[in-house]
From TrEMBL:
<dbReference type="InterPro" id="IPR029024">
    <property type="entry name" value="TerB-like"/>
</dbReference>
<protein>
    <recommendedName>
        <fullName>Co-chaperone DjlA N-terminal domain-containing protein</fullName>
    </recommendedName>
</protein>
Length: 141
């Protein structure tokens, strides 16, 4: 099990991801509260306003929190864990927003095991392929 400060960072990222499409969907809200409850952090003063949608989170904050969570040299394990957590939230409402897909793709690209000297283009095809791969991994786990 992760340490409490790391769990709080992770849940903040999940909340921020839910805000990427402009609002938290009811299914995402339930998912976030379930994750926080299982981790025992529902009463955390920093998380409470985020968990209940009392404070929106900007896209910039989301990417900043992801960078803070993974650090400057992320491990493959950390990237994979974050992808799994993000996928659980993103697929909880049955709809993958373009911004959510971009976040998944960016985290996938940060994974040192996926290092490619040729950057993946931002085309819809690339994003769609990345989502399909992540979804397949998520379903298999």
């Amino acid at each position: 099990m992760l340490e409490k400060p790391i769990v709080i960072k992770l849940i903040k990222i999940l909340v921020a991801t839910a805000w990427l499409d402009g609002k938290i969907q009811p299914e995402e809200q339930k998912y976030l509260q379930k994750v926080a409850q299982e981790a025992g952090v529902t009463d955390d003063h920093e998380l409470k306003p985020l968990l209940y949608g009392l404070r929106p989170v900007s896209k910039e904050e989301c990417y900043e929190w992801v960078g803070d969570y993974l650090g400057s040299h992320p491990t493959a394990e950390a990237c994979q864990q974050l992808l799994e957590e993000l996928s659980g939230l993103i697929y909880s409402d049955g709809d993958v927003d373009a911004e959510e897909a971009k976040l998944l793709l960016q985290v996938e690209q940060l994974n040192p095991q996926n290092a490619d000297p040729h950057p993946v283009s931002d085309s819809v095809k690339s994003v769609t392929q990345a989502i399909q791969q992540l979804y397949q991994r998520w379903v298999q786990n």
